[in-house]
Amino acid sequence: MEINPEAHKNIIQTLSALRTDRLPFWRLWQELARFYLPKRYVALATDKERRLRDAKNPNIIDATGTTAARILAAGMMNGVTSPARPWFSLQVPGFMDDPQNEGKMWADEVTRRMQLVMSETNFYNALATLYLDLGVFGSAALLIYEDDNDVFRCFNPALGEYYFGQDDGLRVNQFAREFRYTVRQMVAKWGKENCSEAVQAAYTTGGARLQEEHTICHLIEPNDTDSTLPKVFKFRETYWEEKCTNGCVLAMNGFYSLPGVFPRWEVTANDSYGTSPGMDALGDVIQLQLETKRKAQGLDKMVRPPLVADVQLQHQPTALVPDGITYVAGINNVGVKPIYQVQIPIAELSADIQDVRSRIKEIFHNDLFNMISQLSTVRSATEIDARREEKLVLLGSVLERFENEALDPAVARIYQIMDRAGLIPEPPDSIQGMQLKIQYISILATAQQAVAAIPTERFVALIGQVAGAAPIALQIPNWDSLLRNYADAIGVKTRDLNTPQQVAELQQEQEKQIEAQQAQVTGKNLVDGARTLSETDVGGGSNALQQVLGATQ
After folding, report:
1. Cα–Cα–Cα angle for 399, 73, 360, rounded to 5 degrees
2. Rounded-to-integer distance, Cα 413 and Cα 152, Å
3. CA distances in angstroms from 473 to 339, 453, 482, 484, 487, listed in the order given
């Protein structure tokens, strides 16, 4: 495929600039990969390291860091986007109080269809990898493409092969990567006619040449300048071979929205890449490996100490097993003895190693996701809730950023793909043109909202305490609004609550019942009074008048 050579030159320069911007993070990512996930991110290894492909992980002796990272990823997966329970719902503002409203029913049906399609693709598998990348490296990428068989398909580019670029709002709107494809893969994906002459020749030759690898460059960016694509596409992507710089590209595609999500754990200033718990715990992880190694070396020297032997024992049989005795004639000194005695402080060293492990787990928030199992004694539910709320405060900003940078664009992207595929039902006329709202109802999102409900609980408890002495306190809150907001904060579904209209109808019915009961009581009192009056011996004079008055009161 041919494009304007000048436009191709600008694309290549953009990739070069993104490569320069990423350079400060490269060495740090390499070290993170070596001490957490050395066999996974080969794109971070040097050419020599990739050629050697060691079968072991030479830098990991104690796997606490890797395990802690996986627990964080699993906890985030289960707590934020669990495939086993609903974690989001679409809402139309102003139409959610009535469960029978057509707008509410339409939004619920769309939510159900989206969750069903997500569960039938590789979406959740890709999210699991995304969380692991995010916890260790602070940056992650997930590409979402339309697919003829599965509606959409997700891909996790390997860290080290991709680059980020930001817009003026510090949101990632540029994504580039460099990866390697074989000749066979290139022809299968882009067609022989779009490949370079060298690739076409290799494909024609066949045989071993089909496995030759070529570096492919890939850039996704806003479709605003120097583009042959229509402006209706907000973003474009371009593939080209690294050696082709004269306007010959493999493909150029247009997208109505950014075809991927690129979350960061925590961002400093205008950095394009994030920081992570893995970076915070890196010093402890390295220390743990060193201490574990030294402890093992010390134990080895205690059990099998280096020895010094009399020269007369050279080439002579010896018995160095336990209780073995080697007899030496003609000398008075000990023939074999340790060069030095090794006495390492096992207890102190083990305690320090355990302390380092605890710090690593705490940095990765394992105490939040393993809270109940890690309690040393039986605790009350109230104390468990209080501890959970305390830990969730530390994850508050991270969850908000993840919702903004990953979940919001992912849900919107999947909705648009399903809509173009005809899988979204036609919205009713009453909500035409209205903006859908995404509400997150996952375990962690609900817990975060519950933390915000604590002031309401304290306020209601205070009213209950002072109402006996000052009954006017009961009239201060707007109870309907207060209770509805509290129910929303702790995750009670709208369909489980009566609407304000239903509440008013129930209140009117209750008032009618009270009035009927009061009328019944009044009628009974009148009947009883009349019966008493009829049975009264009025006699005469003032005494009779008093009895009559008493009976009618």
Report:
1. 95
2. 10
3. 84, 20, 14, 19, 22
Mutual angle of helices 541-552 and 500-534, in 10-degree steps: 160
> What amino acid occupies position 112?
R
Do 118 and 418 meet the contact criterion of CB atoms below 8 Å apart? no
CA–CA gap between residue 434 and residue 101 (Å, rounded): 15
Placement of tokens 């339309």 in the chain: 146
> Whole-angstrom Cα distance, residue 544 to residue 551?
11
Per-position DSSP letters for 405-438, written without gaps between them = IIIHHHHHHHHHHHHHTT-SPPPPGGGTTPPPEE
Sheet (strand 142-147) strand order: 151-155, 142-147, 260-261
Longest pairwise C-alpha distance within the chain: 149
- In sequence order, which residues have a C-beta less than 8 Å from that of residue 189 and are 6 or more positions away? 181, 250
Question: In this predicted model, what pLDDT tens digit does every residue of 347-394 receive, in sequence order?
Answer: 889 999 999 999 999 999 998 877 644 544 545 555 555 565 556 667
Tell me which residue has tokens 């993840």. 402
Dump pLDDT digits (tens) for 191-241. Answer: 999 999 999 999 999 999 999 999 999 999 999 876 678 889 999 999 999
Position of tokens 């993070």? 25
CA distances from 247 to 1, 9, 189, 392, 460 (A): 8, 8, 19, 52, 69
Find the helix packing angle between 408-420 and 102-120, rounded to 10°: 90
